[in-house]
C-alpha cells in the first residue's frame, strides 16, 4: 500500500492539512491571520509580507519569485514535517476515491481552492480576465466569492469598503481614456466605480471579468483554480503600479493595445444596475438540528460553494454533505472524525495546526462526526467545495 493511501485510510477519508502561507510584494498585512507577529516576513524581505493563507490548494502562486510549491497545500503525515506530502499527490493518486467521479470526469482534478486574504489597506482596482480572454493565453478564469467572518475581523482595516465594476452611467470610452493614461498620471479610476461598505458575516460573488478593489477586511475566499489578474489602478495608497501590471496575461501582440486590454472585462456585468441584487449574499439556512446549525455562505454561481457549520458547546453531531470539501475551524475546539481540531490563537511560520482538513466525498456522504469539547464556546467551521452535481445553490 502506498503512503498516500495509507494516510487516507488511517484518517478514514479525512486528511489533515498544513498551513500554506503566501506573501505579496504590495500593500501591507492586516495581521489577522493569527500568524506570530515576528513571522510576517518569514518568506523573505524581497517577497513582501505574508498576507494570505491558502486552503485545499493544488494551485501555484503566480507572484514573481514564488518557490516551486508555493501556494500548494501539504498533508500532515504523522506530525513530521519531513514526511509531509503534497495534497495534489493525494488528488492525483486517489482521484475519484477522494473527490468523486464527477469532478474527476469533468475536470480531471480538484478544481478550486480557498484562502484567507488579509490586507490592512484596500487593494487596487483589478480584474481576473473573462473566460474568452483566458482561452487566448491558455489559463483558467478566476471566479471568486467573498465571505467576511467575524472571528477573523477583530479590526476592519483602514477602509472596509469594496469597489465593484463601474457605475451604470459610465461609458466604455471613459474607462479606456483612464487606461490610456496609466503611465502618465494618477488616473483615479475608482472615481468611475461604485462602492459598498462591507458587512461582517455576509458575502459577495465576483465573476471573472469584473474589475474590483476589495476592502480591508480579512476575507474567506473560495475561488476557481487560478491566480490570473491585471491591475487597472495605477496609484493606490501611494504605491505606483506599472504598465506590465496592466497588460498581464495577454497575447504578446496585444499588450500595447489599450482596447485589447479593456476587452478582458465583461462590460455587462461591470455596469449592471442591479449589481448588489445579483451578487450580494447573506447566509441562508441549509440544515439545523439538536446542537448544530449549517448555513450556505457561498452560493449563486456555477463554480464554488461554501457553508458555515456551528456546533454548540458539549454537543456531538454527524453532518452529511453531498460532496468532497475542504474546511477550516475558525472558533472553538473538539474533534472531527478521528482528529483533534482547534482554532489556533497564534501560529509560527512552519508550525502545524489542527484547524484545516479535507473530507473525501464518500466520508462526506456517509457523515462526519464532530464533537465540540468546550463547555462554553461554539465550534465554528467554514467549508469550501466545487461544482459536484447540482449542489450549488442559485438563490
Can you put this structure into words, describing what you see?
- The chain has 395 residues and is of the alpha+beta class.
- It starts with a helix and ends in a 10-residue tail after the last strand.
- Strands 1-26-23-28-21-20-19 form a seven-stranded antiparallel sheet. Strands 2, 3, 6, 13 and 14 form a five-stranded antiparallel sheet that branches. A four-stranded antiparallel sheet has the order 22-27-24-25.
- 17% of the residues lie in helices and 28% in strands.
- The chain has two domains: 3-281, Jelly Rolls (Sandwich), CATH 2.60.120.10; 293-385, Jelly Rolls, CATH 2.60.120.10.
- The longest helix has 9 residues, at 172-180.
- It contains eleven helices and 28 strands.
Features of this protein?
alpha+beta, Jelly Rolls, 5-stranded antiparallel beta sheet, 17% helix, 28% strand, globular
Quick recap of the structure?
The chain is an alpha+beta fold.
Rounded to an integer in angstroms, the radius of gyration calculated over CA atoms is 21 Å
Largest sheet: 7 strands, antiparallel
Q: Give the overall pLDDT as a whole number.
A: 96
CATH topology term of the largest domain: Jelly Rolls
- What separation lies between the terminal Cα atoms? 45 Å
Basic shape:
globular
Total E-strand runs: 28
How many domains is the backbone divided into? 2
Query: How many helical stretches?
Result: 11
- Report the portion of residues in β strands: 25-35%
Using the 3D structure, state the CATH architecture of the largest domain. Answer: Sandwich
Low-confidence stretches: none
Structural class: alpha+beta
Which strands sit side by side, in order, in the main sheet?
A: 1-26-23-28-21-20-19
User: What is the H level of CATH, i.e. the homologous superfamily of the largest domain?
Assistant: Jelly Rolls
Amino acid at each position: 500500500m502506498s503512503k498516500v493511501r495509507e494516510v487516507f485510510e488511517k484518517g478514514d477519508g479525512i486528511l489533515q492539512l498544513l498551513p500554506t502561507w503566501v506573501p505579496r510584494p504590495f500593500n501591507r498585512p492586516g495581521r489577522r491571520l493569527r500568524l506570530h507577529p515576528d513571522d510576517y516576513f518569514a518568506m523573505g524581505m524581497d517577497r513582501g509580507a505574508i498576507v494570505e493563507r491558502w486552503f485545499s490548494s493544488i494551485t501555484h502562486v503566480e507572484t514573481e519569485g514564488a518557490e516551486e510549491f508555493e501556494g500548494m497545500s501539504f498533508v500532515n503525515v504523522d506530525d513530521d514535517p519531513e514526511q509531509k506530502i503534497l495534497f495534489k499527490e493525494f488528488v492525483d493518486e486517489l482521484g475519484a476515491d477522494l473527490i468523486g467521479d464527477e469532478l474527476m470526469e469533468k475536470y480531471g482534478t480538484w478544481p478550486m481552492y480557498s484562502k484567507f486574504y488579509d490586507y490592512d489597506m484596500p487593494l487596487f482596482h483589478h480584474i481576473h480576465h473573462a473566460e474568452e480572454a483566458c482561452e487566448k493565453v491558455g489559463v483558467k478564469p478566476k471566479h471568486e466569492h467573498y465571505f467576511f467572518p467575524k472571528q477573523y475581523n477583530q479590526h476592519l482595516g483602514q477602509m472596509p469598503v469594496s469597489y465593484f465594476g463601474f457605475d451604470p452611467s459610465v461609458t466604455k470610452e471613459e474607462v479606456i481614456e483612464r487606461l490610456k493614461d496609466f503611465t502618465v498620471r494618477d488616473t483615479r479610476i475608482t472615481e468611475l466605480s461604485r462602492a459598498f461598505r462591507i458587512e461582517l458575516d455576509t458575502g459577495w460573488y465576483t465573476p471573472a471579468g469584473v474589475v474590483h478593489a476589495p476592502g480591508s477586511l480579512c476575507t474567506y475566499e473560495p475561488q476557481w483554480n487560478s491566480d490570473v489578474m491585471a491591475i487597472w489602478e495605477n496609484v493606490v495608497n501611494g504605491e505606483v503600479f506599472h504598465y506590465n501590471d496592466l497588460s498581464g496575461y495577454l497575447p504578446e501582440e496585444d499588450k500595447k493595445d489599450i482596447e485589447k486590454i479593456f476587452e478582458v472585462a465583461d462590460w455587462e456585468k461591470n455596469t449592471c444596475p442591479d449589481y448588489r441584487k445579483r451578487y450580494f449574499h447573506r447566509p441562508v439556512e441549509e440544515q439545523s438540528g439538536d446542537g448544530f446549525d449549517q448555513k450556505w455562505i457561498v452560493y449563486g454561481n456555477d463554480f464554488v460553494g461554501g457553508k458555515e457549520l456551528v456546533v454548540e458547546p458539549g454537543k456531538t453531531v454527524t453532518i452529511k454533505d453531498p460532496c468532497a470539501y475542504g474546511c477550516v475551524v475558525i472558533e472553538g475546539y473538539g474533534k472531527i472524525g478521528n482528529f483533534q481540531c482547534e482554532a489556533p490563537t497564534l501560529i509560527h511560520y512552519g508550525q502545524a495546526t489542527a484547524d484545516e482538513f479535507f473530507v473525501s466525498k464518500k466520508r462526506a456522504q456517509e457523515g462526519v462526526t464532530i464533537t465540540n469539547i468546550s463547555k462554553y464556546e461554539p465550534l465554528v467551521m467554514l467549508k469550501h467545495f466545487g461544482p459536484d452535481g447540482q449542489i450549488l445553490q442559485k438563490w
